[in-house]
Amino acid sequence: ASANIGVVGLAVMGSNLARNLASREGNTVAVYNRSREKTDELIAEHPEAGFVPAFGYREFADSLTTPRTAIIMVKAGAPTDAVIDSLVEVFEPGDIIVDGGNAYFPDTIRREKAVRESGINFVGAGISGGEEGALNGPSIMPGGSDESWVTLGPILRSIAAVAEGEPCVTHVGHDGAGHFVKMVHNGIEYADMQLIAEAYDLIRRGTGKSPAEIADVFAEWNQGELESYLIEITAEVLRQNDAETGLPLVDVILDQAGAKGTGAWTVQTALSLGVPVSGIAEATFARSLSSHPEQREAAADLPGPDEGFAVAAGDVDAFIEDVRLALYASKIVAYSQGFDEIRAGATEYGWNIDLGAISKIWRGGCIIRAQFLNRIADAYAETPDLPLLMAAPYFAEALGRGQAAWRRVVVAAAEAGIPSPAFGSSLSYYDGIRADRLPAALVQGQRDFFGAHTYKRVDKDGTFHTLWSGDRTEIEAVDAH
Ligand code: NBP
C-alpha cells in the first residue's frame, strides 16, 4: 500500500480531482474506474502525477494506506450506491468513503447510516466549481463524522480553493449536512443567474443597447458591490459573437434554460421545511417556463401592453443604475432566503452548521463566489444567531438605499410587459417580511370558516373558533394536545 488517498470514477470531475490531489505535496493518489480505458488514458496523459492505478476494488483497497480514504466521483444515484457497496466489501472499520458527487442529501443520510453499521465512515461532500474547480481548487462542503474529518480535513484543505488566505472547505455538519448545503448553494446560484438575466433583459429592451454594450455595463458593475464570478462571466457571454452568423452569441442561443435538478431539490426541501425561498423558486420556475415551447407558442398572441418600452435617452444612465440597485437588493433577498433554508435544515436534521463559515467557503472556487460573501461572514460574525440575514445592518442599509429604485424597476417591468419574476418576488418578500400586519389574518378567518381550523387573537392568549354556521359567537377552542 502506497497511496494515502484514492479516487473512484475517472470521468471529467474525478480525473481532475485526482490530478488536483496528486499535485499537492505529500499525496500519492490511487485511481480506479469501472471501465479500464479511462484509467489507462489518465495514466498515459499524466505521468507526472505518479498515480497508482488499480483495476479492481480489491486491488484499489490494497493500494491504500490505512485508514483508507477514497473519494467517489461517479454518476449520482444508483451508480453511487453500487460503488459504495463494492468499497464496503473491501474496506475495513475506520476507513473513509467520501461521495463527492451531486447526491440528494436524504440519500446521503441513508447511506451514512447504512455504511456506519460496518464501522466504515461515510462522508457526503458537496464539491462546487465544475471541472475547472475540481482541477485547480473547488469549494468543498463535507458532512460526515468528526472522526473522519480528522483524516479528511488536511487532505481536503490541501486541494480546496483559497480565498483571502483561507481554504474554501469546512466540516459543515454530520451525515447529509454537506450535500444539503451544496444543494442550497446551487439554489442560490439559480436565483443569482435569473436575477442577472432579468437585469440584462430590462436594460436591453428598455434602452436598445447591444449585448456588447451591456457587457460593458456588467464589466463596470463587476468593479463595485456586485463583484462576482457570475457578473464577470455574464459580461464575457454578452461580448461573444457567433462565428457562423456574426450575431451576438446570446441571440443565437435557444432561449430554453436547462436544469439538472438541484434547484428543484432546494425548492422542494424549502417547501417541506416551510421556508419561503421565493427567489430561488421563481428562478427555477422561470427555467421551466422557458422550456415549454408549445405553451409559449400557444400564448404568443395573448395581448401585452399597448405601448412599447423605451427609456428616454436622457434617462438611460439613471435607469441602468436603478436596475443595478434592484439587482443588488434582490440578490440580498435570495441569499437571505438561502441561508434561512440552511438554518431551518440544520434545526430539522440536528446539524450544527456555522453559517458564517459557510459564507466563507463560498468565497472561492464555487460558482457563486463573490465579494458580497464577506459581508455575510461579517454579519454572522457579529450576530451568530441572526434571525434574518437581510435585516443585519449592512444589508438593511443596502436595501434601504435600493428600495425606491427596486420599486421603479418592478413597476417599469410590469407596465412594459417584461417578465421579472425574481425581481418582483424578491420585492414582495421584502415587503411581506417587513410588514406590520399581513392579510394572513384573513386567511386564518377563511380557514376557520370552512374547516374550523381555529385562530389566535392579538389581544389575549388561547385558541379560538367562531361558530360560523351557528350564531357566530366565538368560543375558546380546546387545544388538541
Ligand atoms: P458522470 O456523472 O458522467 O459519471 C461517469 C462516471 O461514473 C464514470 O467514471 C463511470 O464509469 C462511472 N459509473 C457509472 Br455511470 N456507473 C457506474 C457503476 N455502476 N459503477 C462504477 N462506476 C460507474 O461523471 P462526472 O461528470 O465526472 O461527474 C461525477 C460526479 O460529479 C457526478 O455525481 C456529478 O453530478 C458531479 N458533478 C459535479 C459538478 C460540479 O460542478 N460539482 C460538475 C459536474 C459533475 P465508466 O467510465 O465505467 O462508465
What does this structure look like?
This protein has 481 residues and is an alpha/beta fold. Helices cover 55% and strands 8% of the residues. It has 20 helices and 11 strands. The model has no long low-confidence stretch (mean pLDDT 97). The strands form 3 sheets. A 7-stranded mixed β-sheet has the order 3-2-1-4-5-6-7, sandwiched between helices. It binds nicotinamide 8-bromo-adenine dinucleotide phosphate (NBP). Nicotinamide 8-bromo-adenine dinucleotide phosphate binds at residues 9-14, 33-35, 38, 73-76, 79, 82-83, 101-102, 127-130. Belongs to the 6-phosphogluconate dehydrogenase family. This is 6-phosphogluconate dehydrogenase, decarboxylating. Pathway: Carbohydrate degradation; pentose phosphate pathway; D-ribulose 5-phosphate from D-glucose 6-phosphate (oxidative stage): step 3/3. Substrate binds at residues 102, 128-130, 185-186, 190, 260, 287, 447, 453. Pfam families: 6PGD, NAD_binding_2.
What's a concise summary of this model?
The protein is an alpha/beta fold and 481 residues long. 55% of the residues lie in helices and 8% in strands. A 7-stranded mixed β-sheet has the order 3-2-1-4-5-6-7, sandwiched between helices. Strands 8-9 form a two-stranded antiparallel ribbon. It has a two-stranded antiparallel ribbon with strand order 10-11.
Largest beta-sheet details = 7 strands, mixed
Biggest β-sheet: strands ordered side by side in the sheet: 3-2-1-4-5-6-7
Q: Could you say which structural class the secondary elements and strand pairing correspond to?
A: alpha/beta
Number of strands: 11
Instruction: Please work out how many helical segments DSSP would assign.
Output: 20
Strand content: 5-15%
What ligand molecules are bound, each kind once? Answer: nicotinamide 8-bromo-adenine dinucleotide phosphate
> Would you identify the regions where 5 or more consecutive residues have pLDDT less than 50?
none
What is the molecular shape? globular
- Determine Rg (CA atoms, Å): 26 Å
Helix share of residues? Answer: 40-55%
Mean pLDDT: 97
Terminal residue distance: 60 Å
Assembly state (oligomeric): single chain
